[in-house]
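Work Package 3 (structural annotation) set out to generate three-dimensional models for the target panel prioritized at the project kickoff. During this period the team completed the workflow that converts sequence records into C-alpha cells, so that structures can be stored uniformly alongside our sequence database. As a representative example, we reproduce one entry of 148 residues exactly as it appears in the project archive.
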Amino acid sequence: MADIFGVVADSTRREILRILLERYNQSSTAGGELSVSDIVDKLGLSQPTVSKHLKVLREAGLVGVREAGQHRYYHLDYAPLEEIEDWLIPFLSVDFDASAEEAAEETEGLKEEQRAFAAAIGKAFADTSFQMAHAVKDAKPRKWRKND
C-alpha cells in the first residue's frame, strides 16, 4: 500500500478526491459515485491520465470502484483519510492566532525598547553635536605654518 501522504501530495489526485466528495455531498442516493467519463469531464484531462490517478487512489484505498459492464463508477472511501486526520489534529488544536498575538506583543515591546534606545542615542548625538559646534566656534584660529 502506498504512503497516503505521497498519494494526496499530487494536486490532480486531490482534485479527484474533492470532486468525489462534492458528489457524495450532493447525492446520498447514488452513494457519491461518478463514472470515469464524468471525472474526465470535470477535470478536463485525458481519460488515460485520470485512469492512472484513479488507480493510485484505488490502490491506496482512498476510492472504491463499482464495475457495471464496461463502465467503472468511483466513490470516496473515508477510512484511509483517518490516518491524515490523526496526523493533522495536533496541528489544528494549536491556537496559532494566540501564538501570533503573543509574538506581536513581544515585538511591540521590542519596538518600544528600540524607540527608547534610538531616542537616547539621538539625544546623545545632538548634545555632542551641539558641544562640538560651540567648541569649534569658540576656537581661535592657529597658524599652522611658521611663516604665516
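Strands lie at 34-35, 63-68, 71-76.
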